[in-house]
Amino acid sequence: MQISAQKVVSIHYTLTDNDGNVLDTSSNGEPLNYIQGVGALIAGMEEGLEGKLKGDKLQLKIAPEKGYGIHQPEMIQQVPLSAFGGQMVSPGMQFEAGTEEQRFIVTVTDVNDEFATIDGNHPLAGVELNFDVEVLEVREASEEELDHGHVHGPGAHHH
Predict the structure, then answer these.
(1) Please, is 105 exposed, middle or buried when counting C-beta atoms within 10 Å of its C-beta (0-12, 13-18, 19+)?
(2) What pTM value is reported for the model?
């Protein structure tokens, strides 16, 4: 069975940057299980897996535009420390920001006596992604999985 829309797919993957640094991997744990076409993966990954079969091993090089986006300098801002309500703020901390309609995570990158510099870019924005992927299983999604938008069962979501 080929990977196509509304199929449940199980993969092992290793993600590296262009210098060969491992950024993420599933190889030491449970495989990643997802439903193709519901937006569970970055666009470049879903596009690269489309049409593949159980047992296929492949390498995908994904440009930032099909990954976590290009790095946007306007997403970096200085915020007065008073905006944090007296909370201690240090580099590496993450906060939820935005409006009720659109929430996103910002990361504190620098702090001085008056301001915290926050970055709303995804940590992998602007990074070319390299995936080594092995397709472990492809199957039909159940009606319940399609209704919920995620995979049920071992290695997946449980209710």
Answers:
(1) middle
(2) 0.81
CB within 8 A of 118, min separation 6: which ones? 76, 77, 78, 79, 95, 97, 106, 107, 108, 109
How far apart are alpha carbons 67 and 93 in whole angstroms? 23
List 39's β-bridge partners, or say none.
none
Q: All domains of the chain, ordered by start, with CATH?
A: 7-68+125-148 (3.10.50.40), 73-119 (2.40.10.330)
Q: Comparing 148 with 108, which gets the higher pLDDT? A: 108
- Report which of 114, 113, 109 is spatially closest to residue 90, judged by C-alpha positions: 109
pLDDT tens digits, one per residue of 118-142: 999 999 999 999 999 999 999 999 8
pLDDT tens-digit map of 62-75: 999 999 999 999 99
Query: Where do the H-state alpha helices sit in 26-119?
Result: 43-49
**Rounded to 5 degrees, what are φ and ψ at 118?**
-120, 150
Tokens of 113: 């006596």
Tell me what pLDDT residue 91 has: 96
